[in-house]
Specification:
- The chain has helices spanning 2-13, 18-30, 32-35, 38-48, 52-59, 68-71, 73-86, 96-106, 120-129, 172-183, 197-210, 227-234, and strands at 49-50, 110-114, 136-140, 165-168, 186-191, 211-219, 240-244, 247-253.
- It is of the alpha/beta class.
- The protein has an eight-stranded mixed beta sheet with strand order 1-7-8-6-5-2-3-4, sandwiched between helices.
- The protein starts with a helix and ends with a strand.
Length: 254
């Protein structure tokens, strides 16, 4: 109870994040069974899962698959050093090789990312778009309640990559519409923020509508609940599913 009261106080001290709090309350009250549908989602994901390399080869036959650690040694080393200095645990690096190669193969210029943490996926995107004039990445990252690690968000991103990057420190509820308004039609979106069923249901629709034809939607941790499965069915798309580091990633082409 004490923890819940502290969380409430934190949200009251950060009023622009209150819509996120309301979504969490709504999910608990009205979507409890859907929020707990992870076993069903995982069984579905496991039927179609591929490796990063297999998924990329299926999407872009003949394109080389490059590893960031090998091609961008200095940037990768810098990121690892920053993580070691931080003293925080903010998630791993994610499937950054897949993300980088997708950005390269599609030559995407208008990109939305939700969820930053240390910024590994941000680096993967920026390493690609930094070579393209007028390319832009907008990232949304809501501060972690009561943690106080805001100063380490994006810490692995080298200074020379930041010119093409804008960070909105707010929730998906307000941040996604704001980012879409600024970017216009999206070439690609990487979703790695609110993993709740209700949060995904709301955000997936907004992102899909903003994606251009042949644009790509990449969603992390899709086995948490059945929201991604239901989304694919609603837009009549068969996703490519990647299994990496004991997690599932979904890729859908519009």
């Amino acid at each position: 109870m004490v923890s819940k009261i502290r969380t409430l106080i934190w949200y009251l001290q950060n009023p622009k994040l209150l819509p996120d709090a309301w979504l969490k309350i709504k999910a608990r009250l009205f979507y409890a069974s859907a929020e707990k549908s992870g076993m069903k989602a995982k069984a579905w994901c496991s039927l179609y899962a591929l490796s990063q390399e297999e998924a990329f080869a299926q999407l872009f036959p003949g394109h080389p698959f490059q590893k960031i650690e090998n091609r961008f040694t200095e940037e990768y080393k810098y990121g690892m050093e920053q993580v070691a200095k931080s003293g925080y645990v903010m998630g791993g690096s994610g499937a950054i090789d897949l993300l980088y190669n997708l950005c390269e193969a599609t030559q995407s210029c208008k990109i939305l990312e939700t969820g930053v943490a240390y910024g590994w996926s941000t680096v993967a995107i920026l390493l690609s778009i930094s070579t393209r004039p007028n390319a832009s990445l907008i990232s949304i990252d809501m501060p972690y309640a009561k943690v106080g690690n805001e100063n380490f968000v994006g810490t692995v991103i080298p200074e020379h990559l930041r010119n093409s990057w804008t960070l909105f420190r707010e929730s998906d509820f307000t941040g996604i519409p704001k980012a879409i308004s600024r970017l216009g039609q999206l070439d690609l979106c990487h979703y790695d923020s609110d993993k709740s069923y209700l949060g995904r249901k709301r955000s997936n629709k907004l992102i899909w509508k903003a994606l251009k034809k042949n644009g790509f939607f990449i969603s992390d941790d899709i086995s948490d609940n059945i929201a991604f499965k239901e989304f694919c069915e609603s837009v009549c798309r068969t996703p490519i599913i990647v299994y990496w580091n004991n997690k599932y990633i979904g890729i859908v082409k519009k």
